[in-house]
From TrEMBL:
It comes from the Eukaryota. InterPro entries: DUF268_CAE_spp (IPR004951), SAM-dependent_MTases_sf (IPR029063). Pfam families: DUF268. This is Uncharacterized protein LOC106155263. The lineage of its organism: Eukaryota, Metazoa, Spiralia, Lophotrochozoa, Brachiopoda. It comes from Lingula anatina.
């Protein structure tokens, strides 16, 4: 996490280097297509003040849609409500955010504290939400200061890892490493709500370089390795898989 492998390209590459094509396509188990993005210098919103967060909390409680993904956002909320008894009073992490709607949904199902993990420097002004950079989180893990999380949520994030569209290092295994890092940060028995584009039941997936990955079973079995799969919710784009870290290795 602290020193991710791979080279950073500026601007991001439009095609994977020839010597990495087999690795990016998992030896042909992902079809290679092209969907180019350059978010290296994209200016994200960096401050979400308490008034904004309080409004989101109120709107979510009043059953107004606060997520940016329509049915997928509603599906995640249903899952969080389903597991509310396990989440109540707990602390966990949200991996990647451009808008803190996931964090707000978690607070509204009874979560005590949410830590948002992101490469960007952002501020979320709420006493029950904190933000940490990936680098600082890695340092806390290395020196033993990190307290394992009760749960983790990643929605529309991991499928981009390692493709370079955000100025991140090019890494064919970036998504698999992100999922493995999440496993390491969870307590035994911890829940992981994973939202990624997926075609359940189909062996082959695709990589749309440098935009994203759409997962087939050949890649999903690596992405979710070592987790127990509890259920799947298919949606038009970002489907949701509910996973659990086993109580023992």
């Amino acid at each position: 996490m602290k020193h991710p492998p791979g080279k950073v390209y500026d601007p991001p590459l439009r095609k994977p280097p020839p010597e990495l094509v087999e690795a990016f396509t998992q030896n042909g188990e992902l079809d290679l297509e092209f969907w180019y993005w350059n978010f290296k210098n994209y200016h994200h919103v960096t401050l979400f003040n308490k008034t904004f967060i309080d409004t989101l909390i109120k709107n979510d409680k009043n059953k107004k849609m606060i997520g940016a993904y329509g049915h997928e956002s509603a599906g995640l909320k249903e899952l969080l409500q389903k597991y509310a008894a396990e989440l109540n009073g707990k602390s966990g992490i949200v991996i990647g955010t451009q808008h803190p709607w996931v964090e707000v949904m978690l607070l509204n199902v009874g979560v005590n504290h949410v830590t948002t993990v992101d490469y960007n420097t952002i501020t979320i002004e709420h006493p029950n939400i904190s933000v940490i950079s990936v680098t600082n989180l890695a340092e806390k893990n290395l020196d033993g200061r990190f307290q394992p999380a009760d749960f983790a949520v990643s929605f529309s994030s991991i499928e981009h890892a390692g493709l370079g569209r955000y100025g991140d290092p090019l890494n064919p295994y970036g998504d698999l490493e992100s999922a493995a890092q999440t496993w390491c940060m969870l307590k035994p028995g911890g829940l992981f709500f994973l939202g990624v584009p997926a075609n359940f039941g189909k062996r082959k997936g695709k990589i749309r370089f440098n935009g994203d990955r759409i997962y087939g079973e050949a890649r999903l079995e690596h992405l979710t390795a070592n987790f127990l799969e509890l259920e799947r919710r298919p949606f038009e784009y970002d489907s949701i898989i509910t996973l659990r870290k086993p109580l023992s290795d």
